[in-house]
Amino acid sequence: MEAVLTFTSLIAVIIAKVLKNKKRLAQLTAFQMIGVGATYVVSVFIGFILIYYGGNWIASKVPYEILSTLVFILIVIAALSVCVSLMNKTIYKITNGLLPREEHG
User: Fold this and answer.
1) What is the DSSP letter of 21?
2) Residues in CB range of 26: below 8 A, 6 or more apart
3) Which of 22, 37, 57, 82 sits 20 to 30 Å CA-CA off 67?
C-alpha cells in the first residue's frame, strides 16, 4: 500500500510541476524536453545509488547506532545537494537558461 501511495504522490508532483511550468515548457524544443526528462531520471538514479549503496555502506562501518543514523542522514543531505546542484546546472545548459528559475552564475 505504501508503494501505491508513494507512486501516486510522485505522479501528482510531476503533474503539478508540468502544469506550473506549462508556458516555459511550450518554449522548449522536443530535444530539450527529452534532455530535461533524461536529466531528471539520471539525477534520481544517481541519488538513489549514492544514498542506498554509499550511505548504507558508510553508515554500516560506524559502530554506534545513533552515530550511524546521523552519518546516514548527513550522507543523504550531501547526496541530494550534489544531485540537485548538478541537475539544475545541466538543465540550465540544456534549456539555454529557460529552466530552472534560479539564476546560475
Assistant:
1) T
2) none
3) 82
All three cell numbers of 48, joined, read 538513489
Euclidean distance between CA atoms 86 and 66, whole angstroms: 30
Residue 104 C-beta-side C-alpha neighbours within 13 Å: 17
Q: 33-66, pLDDT tens digit by residue?
A: 999 999 999 999 999 999 999 999 999 999 999 9
Residue-wise pLDDT for 1-33, tens only, equals: 888 999 899 899 989 988 988 888 899 999 999
Question: Do the beta carbons of residue 95 and residue 32 sit within 8 Å?
Answer: yes
43 phi and psi, to 5 degrees? -65, -45
- Tell me, what amino acid is at 51? I
Q: Could you tell me which of 17, 15, 41 has the C-alpha nearest to residue 100?
A: 17
pTM of the full predicted structure? 0.79
Residue 39 C-beta-side C-alpha neighbours within 13 Å: 21
